[in-house]
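wait is this the right file?? whatever heres the structure
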């Protein structure tokens, strides 16, 4: 039985990966070289895992130095969804895992025009198809084209806000390009000093809704200067889940994100917005941001917007074969009571 790393030890165990990929991008059929850096004489092996921690191949013993993952773990060739390679030193998970992302041709969202309860039209996503659009819905989409593998060490994101810290685990297995975009913005300092410009503590039905940030302009229409293609994430919008904000056009996300305040309030966003991670720490901070005083209740504009003082990408904790990450998402039970405030129609 694998020895599990306790949640209490997760922060201490989070350290740079002993696996260093030589290339970020690796073409089809090319060697996938990584450097194994463990203390001399240490027994090392590589575990190939899915997002839940299930072993996709038996662990393979490796030596210190350069290793071709395609030779050591041939199952890498077959994956069509993000998986992970975890280093085991003396039988224990050590350092962050490597994210192995197949680079696949896009599935485009299929849409229809629908109406909100107040009668205003919006674009509703009804399914996904191959690129380019035009293939009849009833036809099975062709297989996606594989262009190679993107390989990098797994990272978490810490939002150090004026109300406290929020630690976010990423889900590249559900939204690989959205996660990659978010990490690049974080590491480039994009979110430093940016506020939560929109806070909607309650829907018109009285369910906690969202806190929204990521717009340097603070007006709600700013971004990084580009639009991000929507991905078909299956991650449910639940308390603590982070998802990309966008305009009506499916591919109009960029840098703005929201963090969900309850399942009841945000379940309707499933399949319509791209959820790409979840909080593992910081439920109290999320609650504190949701409880700030609002200058404009209808727009959700805070009197004094909470600020992301700095956003950091930090090493993710090691993944355990059989169980995956040692920590777990925050839940509704961790959510502080919603402040007594006016309900916000949404």
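ok assuming it is, sequence goes like this
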């Amino acid at each position: 039985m694998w020895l599990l790393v306790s949640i209490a030890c997760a922060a201490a165990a989070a350290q740079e990966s002993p696996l260093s990929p030589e290339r970020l991008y690796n073409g089809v059929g090319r060697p996938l070289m990584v450097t194994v850096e463990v203390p001399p004489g240490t027994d090392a092996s590589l575990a190939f895992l899915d997002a839940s921690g299930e072993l996709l191949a038996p662990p393979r013993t490796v030596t210190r130095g350069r290793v071709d993952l395609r030779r050591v773990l041939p199952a890498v060739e077959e994956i069509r969804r993000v998986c992970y390679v975890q280093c085991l030193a003396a039988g224990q998970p050590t350092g962050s895992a490597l994210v192995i992302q197949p680079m696949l041709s896009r599935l485009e969202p299929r849409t229809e025009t629908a109406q909100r309860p107040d009668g205003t039209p919006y674009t509703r996503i009804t399914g996904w198809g191959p690129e380019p659009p035009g293939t009849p819905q009833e036809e099975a989409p062709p297989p996606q084209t594989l262009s190679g593998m993107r390989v990098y060490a797994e990272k978490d994101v810490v939002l150090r806000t004026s109300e406290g810290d929020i630690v976010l685990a990423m889900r590249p297995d559900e939204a690989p390009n959205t996660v990659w975009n978010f990490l690049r913005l974080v590491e480039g300092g994009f979110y430093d000093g940016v506020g939560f410009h929109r806070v909607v503590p309650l829907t018109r039905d009285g369910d906690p809704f969202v806190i929204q940030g990521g717009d340097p302009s603070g007006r709600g229409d700013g971004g990084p200067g580009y639009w991000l293609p929507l991905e078909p994430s299956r991650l449910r919008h639940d308390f603590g889940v982070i998802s990309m904000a966008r305009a009506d056009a499916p591919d109009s996300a960029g840098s703005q994100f929201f963090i969900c305040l309850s399942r009841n309030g945000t379940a309707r966003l499933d399949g319509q917005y791209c959820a790409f991670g979840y909080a593992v720490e910081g439920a109290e901070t999320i609650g504190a941001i949701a409880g700030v005083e609002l200058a404009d209740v209808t727009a959700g504009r805070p009197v004094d917007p909470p600020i992301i003082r700095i956003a950091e990408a930090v090493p993710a904790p090691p993944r355990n074969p059989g169980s995956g990450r040692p920590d777990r998402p925050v839940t509704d039970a961790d959510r502080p009571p919603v402040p007594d405030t006016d309900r916000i129609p949404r």
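The first strand starts at residue 19 and ends at 21. so i think its the right one actually
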